Every structure is written in structure tokens, then in C-alpha cells.
């Protein structure tokens, strides 16, 4: 049998004799007895992830990808498989809509760069162990930097809160006002955060004014009540006490004016030269005759 004939029948024999008990004498066909090349499945690049220790494959593979992140073959394969490099720059948005980018720096630490109104600012998040952790840390950090974001109530929102206050539902009015003004607050007690003191004071005034029909809003009243409150945080109840003191003070002033009017009622009016100059000639002539007539009468009585 020639070599060409053997090559012709070889595929068929490989399909027919696949069992382990089949022993073929191929000594007459030396070209079929070539040993497989002694080639390892581990090349220099992938040998570092071959480890027999349990649970080490994930860590080794992650480290391997990070160390070879610039290899186009590896990054292309990962991208084709839908695997994204977490350390690569990734854009996201902070809670207030500010655009930011999270990435791993050359020192292996997570960083976030945000485009704030004051300019671009970066923060290093050494404690972050993942991209999500870095994004969460950046939200907290930049939230403190930019301060609270207060929303002005719309006309509909103001009307709704005012009607709640007018019906005496003060707690509901306060809660709704703050929910409209600070919709992004996720803490437990907004009144204990100094950053929100101004909006809390404005809320107290709004609810007090619309729940107290006796209150006539004026600069005089607000100045008095503000002095009464002093440095204390403004609350609806404190404004009620301040308004009560304001009313007492006004009542005392009114009683004092009435007493002065009664005491001065029997005193003759005092006429000055300026008063005479301001009178028209006809009234001065009448006044002169009245005074002269009253003077003559007094003399006759004597």
C-alpha cells in the first residue's frame, strides 16, 4: 500500500476505530507515529493566573487584567465579551446633575473629577475599593463642597402649604414646605443640620404668617419679634410667643397715648407765631375779633 493510499483511507479508519481496545500496528507507516510536540498550554502571559489554590482564580484574573490593561489583544477580547474595565474613565452624574468622571489613578487609587460651577475639581478616594464605592464617596464629598440646594416654592406649592397652615395643620404644613424646598434631602432630621438653618427659618415664618390671621405683617412687627427670638432657631411656636409679647407692648403704648390725651384735654391750645402766619387773612381777622370780644367780656365780668 502506497503512502497516497494510506492518506486516502486514514479519515475513515479514525472514525471507525475510536475505542480504547483497538491497537493498530503502524510500524510500517512511520509518518503516522510522529509524537505530538511537547507544548505547554501555559504561555508566559497566562501562566500567572494558573494557581491551584482555591478561590484564587478571581483575584489572579483581576490582577492579570489590570496589569495588562494596555494590551490591545486583552482589552479587545474583554470588550468583545462584554467585560468592562472598571478602572477606565467612566462618566456619571452626581445627585444635583453635575457631570463627573471616575477612574483609577496611576497609584492604583480611585479618583473622581467633577465639573463644578467654580471649575473642575478632583478628589482622591483612598478608602474606595470599587467604582461604585468611589462614586458614592464622591457624592458625599462634593455634596459638602457645594452646600445645600434650595428650591423656591412654586405658586401652587405655596398655596397648598398656606391652606394647610390656615386649617391649623401646622406639622403637615412644615413637612410639605421642607419637602418642596429641599427635595434631595435624605437625612433623618433636617432641622439639626446648620446648612439648612436659613430655609428652616423661612419655613417657620411662612407657616406662622398663614396660620395667624391676627398678625398684620409689617417691618415693625418682624423687627420686634426677631429681637425677642435672638440667636435661637426660629420655630412656629417661638414666633407665636414673640407675637404675643409684641401685642402686649402695642397695647401698653396705646393705653399710654389715651392717658396723655385725657390729661391734655383741659389744657388750652398753644398758638405759636408760625401758626398765625400759616392762617389766611380772613381767619386771622375773625380770630382777632373773637379774642377782642372775649377780652372785653372778661373785663366786664370783673
Please describe what this structure looks like:
It is a single chain. The chain has 302 residues and is an alpha+beta fold. Among the domains are: 90-146, no CATH class; 155-252, no CATH class. It has helices spanning 3-16, 56-67, 72-80, 131-146, 155-166, 170-181, 197-211, 219-229, 236-263, 273-278, 281-301, and strands at 90-93, 99-104, 110-116, 119-125. The chain has a four-stranded antiparallel sheet, covered by helices on one side. A hairpin with a 5-residue loop joins strand 1 and strand 2. Helix 5 (155-166) crosses helix 7, helix 6 crosses helix 7 and helix 8 packs across helix 9 (236-263). The protein is rod-shaped, with a radius of gyration of 47 Å. The chain starts with a helix and ends with a helix.
Q: Would you report the number of β strands?
A: 4
The radius of gyration is: 47 Å
Please give the order of strands in the largest beta sheet.
Answer: 1-2-3-4
Report, as a whole number of angstroms, the end-to-end distance.
Answer: 178 Å
Major beta sheet summary: 4 strands, antiparallel
Low-confidence stretches: none
Structural class label: alpha+beta
The fraction of residues assigned to DSSP E strands is: 5-15%
Order of helices and strands: HHHEEEEHHHHHHHH
Query: Averaged pLDDT, please?
Result: 76
Outline: rod-shaped
> In which range does the helix fraction lie?
40-55%
From the structure above, extract its key features.
302 residues; alpha+beta; four-stranded antiparallel beta sheet; 11 helices
What's the short story on this structure?
The protein is α+β, with helices and mostly antiparallel strands. It is 52% helix and 8% strand.
Amino acid at each position: 500500500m502506497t503512502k497516497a493510499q494510506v492518506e486516502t483511507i486514514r479519515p475513515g479508519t479514525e472514525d471507525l476505530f475510536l475505542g480504547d481496545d483497538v491497537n493498530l500496528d503502524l510500524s510500517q507507516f512511520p509518518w503516522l507515529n510522529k509524537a505530538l510536540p511537547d507544548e505547554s498550554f501555559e504561555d508566559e502571559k497566562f501562566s500567572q493566573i494558573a494557581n491551584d489554590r482555591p478561590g484564587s482564580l478571581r483575584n489572579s484574573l483581576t490582577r492579570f487584567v489590570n496589569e495588562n490593561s494596555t494590551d490591545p489583544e486583552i482589552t479587545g477580547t474583554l470588550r468583545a465579551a462584554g467585560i468592562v474595565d472598571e478602572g477606565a474613565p467612566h462618566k456619571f452624574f452626581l445627585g444635583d446633575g453635575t457631570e463627573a468622571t471616575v477612574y483609577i489613578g496611576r497609584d492604583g487609587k480611585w479618583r473622581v473629577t467633577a465639573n463644578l460651577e467654580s471649575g473642575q475639581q478632583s478628589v482622591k478616594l483612598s478608602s474606595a475599593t470599587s467604582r461604585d464605592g468611589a462614586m458614592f464617596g464622591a457624592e458625599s464629598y462634593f455634596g459638602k463642597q457645594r452646600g445645600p440646594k434650595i428650591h423656591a416654592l412654586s405658586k401652587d406649592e405655596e398655596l397648598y402649604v398656606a391652606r394647610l397652615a390656615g386649617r391649623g395643620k401646622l406639622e403637615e404644613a412644615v413637612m410639605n414646605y421642607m419637602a418642596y424646598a429641599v427635595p434631595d434631602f435624605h437625612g433623618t432630621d433636617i432641622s439639626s443640620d446648620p446648612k439648612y438653618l436659613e430655609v428652616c427659618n423661612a419655613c417657620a415664618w411662612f407657616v406662622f404668617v398663614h396660620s395667624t390671621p391676627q398678625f398684620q405683617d409689617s417691618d415693625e412687627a418682624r423687627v420686634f419679634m426677631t429681637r425677642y427670638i435672638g440667636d435661637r432657631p426660629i420655630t412656629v411656636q417661638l414666633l407665636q410667643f414673640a407675637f404675643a409679647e409684641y401685642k402686649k407692648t402695642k397695647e401698653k403704648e396705646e393705653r399710654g397715648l389715651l392717658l396723655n390725651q385725657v390729661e391734655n384735654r383741659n389744657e388750652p391750645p398753644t398758638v405759636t407765631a408760625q401758626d398765625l402766619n400759616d392762617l389766611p387773612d380772613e381767619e386771622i381777622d375773625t380770630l382777632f375779633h373773637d379774642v377782642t370780644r372775649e377780652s372785653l367780656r372778661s373785663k366786664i365780668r370783673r
